[in-house]
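It would be a great kindness if you could assist me with a short task in structural biology. Thank you for your consideration; the sequence and its tokens are set out here.
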Amino acid sequence: MHITFGPNTYFHADRTQSGHNCHRFVSMQGVGVDLHATIKRRPQTSNSHTVSEARLETLQSASKHLPFSNSGFLSRNSNFHHLSEEERQKLGGYEYRAICLLSWLVPAYYLLFQLFGCLGIGAYVAMSKPLVARENGLNPWWVGSFNAVSAFNNSGMSLLDANMVAFQTSIYMLITMGLLILAGNTCYPIFLRLIVWTLLKLMPSCESWDHHRKTLQFLLDHPRRCYTNLFPSRHTWWLLACVVCLNGIDWVAFEVLNIGNEAITSLPAGIGILDGLFQALAVRSGGFYVVPIPSVRVSLQVLYVIMMYISVYPVVITMRSSNVYEERSLGIYADEEQNLPQTTPQDVSKRHGLFSALRQRLSGSHHSHEQTRSYFVRQQLRAQLAHDLWWLVLAVFVIMIIEGSNFAREPAIFSVFNVIFETVSAYGCVGVSVGFPDQAYSFAGGLHTLSKLVLCAVMIRGRHRGLPVAIDKAVLLPGEGVDEAEEEDGEIRLERTISRGRTVLIGARTSSRNREPYSKRSKRKNLA
């Protein structure tokens, strides 16, 4: 019996796994991953020669994105495939040098921002506002230093009972603390990339510095291969736009919704605008306030609840959409879409008729062919919202049960909205509170002990929602397993592109027909 395979059939190299074989009842490889498939069939095309020639024009060459000459190709999110073993080693060398750079740049970032913040704000309080600290029995330098560190770490804690209300007119202190709040949280990836870009521009162009310039350029071009909180250029601009937009909404709402509010109109015009800007920067994540929360309009308090809840989303969405190693574990293989012609509903109608096109438009099936970054972000956002809401709803429900007697006695103070505000503030790790009447402590200070424990659990859970998932590694050391996985990712994405009817198909495999697959090269090396 003879078995003959057609010209459109190709084989994957066998990948032996060390260790004993184990069988799982449920596969943990993710949707779309088929590790047992050994034969895959290319779709029949009538113009295969024309397609194979056009593939090279549409695939992105990796030589334009790497500081050394190579013959590989670049996929989405800085995934490289069809690199030789020597080229893989060079790529690992640049990753290692970039990580070494970050190993001292990131600690220096944290140390210097807090050091200069402590010196600047401490000196200001000691020179301009010493009575504010001494009236509370505190050293002015200690008050300024404590506020600087608290602002950078977004803890919202202050040594003064009135938080930042005593510094409503302190222009320098409000601006400096606002910058520290941004530098320590939402703008950290932005500032870090700005520092790397500045170092690259200031570095001499002589040959002796060429090695360092290439390392900095590699870090700017492919940051997510080295660090979870350093994003590519487009993602960084998107994050900056989100930060400006959200803070701008808070700022405008503070000025507009508080028209006629004596707590705001009593301030000088310029100071009121600056206070609104600082409160917009601080309430989302910093935890400070210059105008007491109960003094602002209720509509603004509702907006603050929304902003505290979504405060972590810009960074998380950017982190998810720019990941390099996470998609393989999740079984997500988006198509290569940089230079691919898209199939429009008009093209569908020409090929399949008006009724078929209308059915696809109503069912949304034509969008199912585009598993793009936006789709991945939407899925992450929906999962995050569903993951968050049940915690908040359950916490509010339990606290209202515990505080039933207090609500019956003082419904205005222990209102449902106040409980929601406190719970969302705890879940977002913001620290802003509506306060307790005639008391120096927050609203949580008037709750029962069991309610405080519930808030503690909510804070612990909320503290971890902004972290990358365990499979999204910050650093993945080079190795043959990693290299083969990345090569296989490139193959799978190209195969998906073929199956989805794109005109750009498998050029990488055609162009490298005379090259030995990486998995075979590595296996032959091990046998030797």
In short: Strands lie at 9-11, 39-41, 60-61, 73-75, 79-81. The longest strand covers residues 9-11. DSSP finds 22 helices and five strands in the chain. The CA atoms of residues 360 and 366 lie 6 Å apart.
